[in-house]
Design a protein that fits this description.
The complex is a heterodimer. By secondary structure, chain A is mainly alpha-helical. In chain A, helix 2 runs parallel beside helix 5. Chain B is an alpha/beta fold. Chain B contains 17 helices and 13 strands. In chain B, the strands form two sheets. In chain B, strands 1, 2, 6, 7, 8, 9, 10, 11, 12 and 13 form a ten-stranded mixed sheet that branches. Chain B has a three-stranded antiparallel sheet with strand order 3-5-4, with helices on both faces. In chain B, strand 4 and strand 5 form a beta hairpin. Classes of the chains: A mainly alpha, B alpha/beta. Chains A and B meet through helix 2 and helix 4 of A and helix 12, helix 13 and helix 15 of B.
Chain lengths: 104, 486
């Protein structure tokens, strides 16, 4: 996650006072895991504003059923349909859940 | 040859391709990321130095062997990962359409490309450089060095950037303007490295004998470096600067700036120039991005893998009238991502891949091979950027499913047979589909591939002037290939 995005997440988390969730749209498990870790435990690369800042934000992926069900189906198909078909959905969900649920 | 002698509407083709890698371990410290990180934490420099690869490991690294043409992308797909642990036995630095040169050779190329006496190198580096540049004949008399004492004296008398060889100071880039940030020694070091790697790629291509340097009419540089002083910043050009070194005395040129997708924009432009009869031979070229060296070094250190962004790349492509053996550029099958297309993945691939094919009544399965951004995944995955080519090929396969061209269970086969693993250094414009062109030419000559599509995307938003992305594509066919869509 680049430095600007980390700074924005940090700022929004402060302003929202616990009313914020993060929805990721990463196309693969590897980057999903890194982004999910960044907004929960802090930036593991120790490069950005979230280094050492465990925000513990509730993090989801746009491919998770609870997110899909909350969106307009036509819009979802238009913007996410292709990714849903091409991505390794199970593995992506496994990693985002892992960090959301604080797994070890 | 005058225009009167030319065909009225020549069929443009890519006639030759050439690639270079310059191993430059002591340049990594001056990549943008390492420069900033080491400044903040000087102890990182030792860790970085300890994780750099020696020459033998760089030459025998399977993706590098694919880049210069000694292995095919299919060979790489069959090679177990991590590739840095499954090196090629008896690997050669000379490939079918490229070569890997040493850091000394790179310093030599920079020295002979330096028209303003900005760069000083030691005589031992200069001597090694002359030895390490076989089959290169331009300006070799300019590769001269100084004694260590003279170097010390130059550094004492000037402000500038110390340069290293095997961790020791062995060169210096002096400051040429006191106030101009666009002419900072570090900026000029980047630009000179870009020029030097492009010079080698162009010289090697012209050595191949298809044409002579004097035959080139126009040069299109696609490198990402910002050339110019403070009144133009990146508004300048490297193309004639490169052509001058290798003797393209009849050429002028300009630079095409389009982030990562510039080489594909340039090849389409070159094809159009040839087709229009404006110029007969156009060279598209691009040198390496020094700023991107070591870009992901922190992730590589964290994951205890070698720091693999240790080479500068260069490439050159000759576009001219088809001679019966070239890769014909199908200008009627080019794709573009227009401003109004939207930036969802679907919208981008619809515009770049599906729309041009549909115009010609072709299907996605009529393309034998797709070349997308060919980033080496071994470099990008530790930093969380994933396997870029694989993601793109999965997306293309999903589009073919949505269009009813293939069954969902055939996606893996589509990805494997029409895609390929990434093998290019992560230097912006270098991976933009075009590293496949050398392999495409070989495969077309062997009758293995009839038609291929090159797809490039660019991150326009990085410059903070728009949130847009960009993309362009083209299709190539061999003269002996399919004629069904004409």
């Amino acid at each position: 996650m680049d430095l600007d995005d980390q700074a924005n997440v940090n700022r929004l988390a402060e302003e929202s006072e616990g009313e914020m969730i993060v929805i990721l749209g990463q196309p693969d498990p590897n980057s999903t895991a890194l982004f999910a870790e960044t907004v929960t435990r802090g930036d593991p690369t120790w490069a950005g504003p979230l280094a050492g800042v465990p925000l513990g934000l509730p993090v989801y992926h746009v491919l998770e059923p609870e997110i899909k069900e909350s969106m307009d189906p036509e819009l979802y198909q238009e913007h996410v349909g292709l990714m849903e078909l091409s991505a390794d959905v199970d593995e992506i969900i496994k990693w985002v859940k892992y960090y959301r649920e604080g797994g070890e | 040859m005058s225009l009167e002698d030319s065909d009225p509407m020549p069929e443009p083709a890519i006639l030759a391709t050439r690639y270079v890698l310059a191993h430059a371990p002591d340049f990594v410290r001056y990549g943008s990321k390492p420069t900033r990180e080491v400044e903040a934490d000087p102890a990182l420099l030792d860790q970085l130095a300890a994780s750099l690869r020696p020459w033998d490991e760089v030459v025998s690294y399977p993706p590098n062997q694919v880049f210069i043409g000694n292995l095919t992308p299919d060979d790489l797909a069959a090679t177990e990962r991590p590739w840095y642990e499954h090196r090629v036995t008896d690997a050669s630095a000379d490939g079918q359409f490229g070569r890997i040169v040493t850091q000394a050779a790179l310093y030599g190329l920079m020295k002979l490309s330096d028209d303003f006496d900005m760069l000083t190198i030691t005589d031992s580096v200069a001597e090694q450089a002359r030895h390490d540049l076989p089959r290169f004949e331009h300006r070799l008399d300019r590769i001269v060095g100084v004694t260590p004492d003279e170097l010390t004296s130059v550094m004492a008398d000037n402000d500038g950037l110390p340069l290293y060889f095997d961790g020791e100071v062995a060169g210096f880039m002096r400051r040429v303007h006191e106030q101009d940030a666009s002419l900072d020694p570090h900026v000029l070091f980047e630009n000179l490295a870009c020029k030097a790697t492009a010079v080698l790629a162009v010289a090697d291509l012209l050595n191949d004998g298809e044409v002579t340097p004097a035959d080139i009419d126009y040069l299109l540089n696609t490198g990402e470096e910002a050339v110019g002083d403070r009144y133009q910043r990146g508004g300048g050009s490297l193309s004639k600067a490169v052509g001058e070194v290798v003797g393209c005395v009849n050429a002028t040129g300009s630079d095409i700036k389009a982030f990562c997708s510039a080489p594909v924009h340039a090849l389409i432009t070159a094809g159009a120039m040839v087709a229009a009869g404006l110029y007969r031979y156009v060279l598209v070229l691009g040198g390496g991005s020094q700023a991107k060296m070591g870009m992901k070094f922190r992730a590589h250190l964290r994951n205890e893998v070698p720091v693999m962004e240790d080479c500068l790349a260069g490439m050159a492509f000759l576009v001219g009238p088809d001679n019966g053996d070239g890769m014909r550029l199908r200008l009627d099958l080019t794709g573009k991502h227009p401003i109004g297309a939207g930036s969802s993945t679907q919208a981008v691939y619809q515009a770049l891949v599906v729309d041009p094919l549909e115009r010609a009544g072709l299907q996605m399965t009529d393309i034998d091979r797709y070349a997308v951004e060919m980033h080496n995944p071994e470099i990008t995955e530790p930093g969380g950027s994933g396997d870029v080519p694989r993601t793109n090929y999965r997306t293309l396969a999903a589009m073919a499913v949505m269009r009813g061209e293939i069954a969902r269970e055939d996606m893996d086969d589509f990805t494997a047979s029409r895609g390929m693993p990434g093998f290019a250094p992560t230097q912006g414009h270098i991976p933009a589909g075009v590293p496949y062109l050398g392999h495409a030419h070989r495969a077309m000559r062997a009758g293995e591939v009839d038609r291929a599509m090159i797809v490039a995307k660019g991150s326009l938003f990085l410059g903070r002037m728009t949130q847009l992305v960009d993309g362009v594509s083209f299709v190539i066919e061999h003269a002996a290939g399919p004629q069904d869509s004409e």
